[in-house]
Amino acid sequence: MLGKTTKAEVIDKLLSTGDFLSLSRRNPQLFSSEVTFCIADHTEVKIYAEGVISFNPKASTVKDIILSSGIHGNETAPIEICDAFVRDILRGQLIVAQRVLFIFGNLESMDIAQRFVEENMNRLFSIGHQSNSKEQIRAAKLEQYVAQFYAVGDSGVNRERSHYDLHTAIRRSKNEKFAVYPYLHGKP
Questions:
Q1: Which of 47, 105, 133, 170 holds its CA 20 to 30 A away from the CA of 139?
Q2: What is the DSSP track for the chain?
């Protein structure tokens, strides 16, 4: 799907195969500008960039959910789970009831099956983005997409916001299952 691929052809491919992640990895230029379309008459799809896609039900909602995976390219289980969700949603096999944004973070590190290419992306959010590493540039863009997603959901209604940053433990842990949550500096 290179050359003079039209947006309509990209949308048709997405709706028939659901293959957003693969297209993002193989042909990121297909998503160099935003793409918006609808699934049937119930869900608006917005592709912010390669690896970043949102689904917005046309019905009223109260939640904004973000599922990010692939911040580390070698943590494949969350990537595979989110890819399956996106495929099923695009093919109409799963219908979202709330707004959801899927972020596949570090596409280049996925391609080489490594934690990162130049720098650990997980340490680069909300720090001012000082370097010009690939990961730092991508982290800054991902923060912008999150802000845009939340801004669209602001309709004067108190919205519940959840961001699940999905990782895979690659070393044995003392605890079989655990969650890490951010320090909130005394805020609720």
A1: 170
A2: --SS--HHHHHHHHHHH--HHHHHHH-GGGGSS-EEEEETTTEEEEEEETTEEEEEESS---EEEEEEE-SSTT-HHHHHHHHHHHHHHHTTSS--SSEEEEEE--HHHHHTTSS-SSS-GGG-TTS---S--HHHHHHHHHHHHHHHHHHHH-SSS--EEEEEE-----S--SSSS-------TT--
